[in-house]
């Protein structure tokens, strides 16, 4: 029995060291491995399948809103960055450059893509000539490189995977509507597929995307009380259009600059998924995003193996026909107890056990990963009960995460209280802000917390600045972040 518990014994408890717990889980669950290049990781099949599931659900939503996929080069000429100075200044500390090929130095340095506004802006200037060419709605699935000083697998790596949407519109109103629509798409995906509740709002000027007129974000809380920026959507105004001459002939026969947007979500969301739902037994995957929703484990003596396996195969066939992602672990060189612990650690939402006695009773034992509840279910009822339970697990995980976010968020009136909330109590603080960048910077200096966003629908309006005690222009969420 001790050997069967090796998997969970090797995981550091969250209460002891949350960062160590995180590393233990992602390595033991076989999601990734460290690459020989600093700050880079290898996505192993189990980890990449999670990203593929995110891609599938996001891509469907993008196409339903009229976007199409394209691909742009990894290398971007340095001169492109000079056309939008605020943009290049924002990314310059993280930019890797290609300066030579073989023995020859390049005439112009090439940046390895940190984001694609510049090169896409260059191409849009050639593709957009008339109002008939608008709106231009394109998404790209790609990798990007930002040479991070401090790295953490999935959450912050030197190279990561993401999608980046880039659109061009005839009017400011259309572009702003697009910016809001895509934030809604991200919210729907993160809350309904990943079961992660988010706080929606606008970034303060100091935290917005370089070169943007306005940046909007969804912010999620991890179980250690820290924030992860789960997705962003930017209204870029005509800043990039002016820099790259994205002009069009409008219906009134006048040449005008387009209004552009960009929006993105990266593999950082996998780190958030793990940190929001995981526990001391390991991963806990929401059924809607889990590559495997049900693991079938046949049990019993060798003499009954053939009969049990045949019944298990029939169960798998019927569940797959009902749309359930299911597989079986028929290994005979490890015990059922080992398998139980392994798949709990891997976060499979439901476990289905079938043994000789179960066959005699015409049933299987169904075990929920989230609650540990074990229930005998008639074999003839599995195709009805299992999908219902998967829905219950999904909604239960979102409800639990919402309660955690609610119980670890509170309003404060002083910088001392803000420090207590984000440090000692490990949560988010809702505070007033006068709009002065110096007051915002003071919060970071004293507490280590940054503004997460100015919420669209704050639980309350705070009228006094947390730093200077002058009248507040905004109510802001603050928190420490990854």
Describe the structure.
The chain has 482 residues and is an alpha+beta fold. It folds into three domains: 3-277, Bira Bifunctional Protein, Domain 2 (BirA Bifunctional Protein, domain 2); 294-392, 3-Layer(aba) Sandwich (Rossmann fold); 409-479, Translation Initiation Factor IF3 (2-Layer Sandwich), CATH 3.30.110. The protein is 36% helix and 26% strand. The chain has 15 helices and 23 strands. The strands form five sheets. An eleven-stranded mixed sheet has the order 3-7-8-14-11-10-9-22-23-21-20, sandwiched between helices. A five-stranded mixed sheet has the order 16-15-17-18-19, with helices on both faces. A three-stranded antiparallel sheet has the order 4-6-5. A hairpin with a 6-residue loop joins strand 1 and strand 2. Helix 3 (45-64) crosses helix 7. The chain is globular, with a radius of gyration of 25 Å. Residues 1-5 have low confidence and may be disordered.
Element layout with pairings:
Blueprint: H1 6-9, H2 18-28, E1 32-34, E2 41-43, H3 45-64, E3 68-69, E4 75-77, H4 78-82, H5 85-91, E5 97-101, E6 104-112, H6 117-127, E7 136-145, E8 159-169, H7 172-192, E9 199-202, E10 214-221, E11 227-235, H8 239-244, E12 247-249, E13 255-257, E14 259-266, H9 268-277, E15 294-298, H10 305-321, E16 326-328, H11 336-345, E17 350-354, H12 356-361, E18 363-368, E19 374-378, H13 382-407, E20 409-411, H14 415-424, E21 428-433, H15 437-447, E22 450-455, E23 474-479
Parallel strand pairs: 3-7, 15-16, 15-17, 20-21
Antiparallel strand pairs: 1-2, 4-6, 5-6, 7-8, 8-14, 9-10, 9-22, 10-11, 11-14, 12-13, 17-18, 18-19, 21-23, 22-23
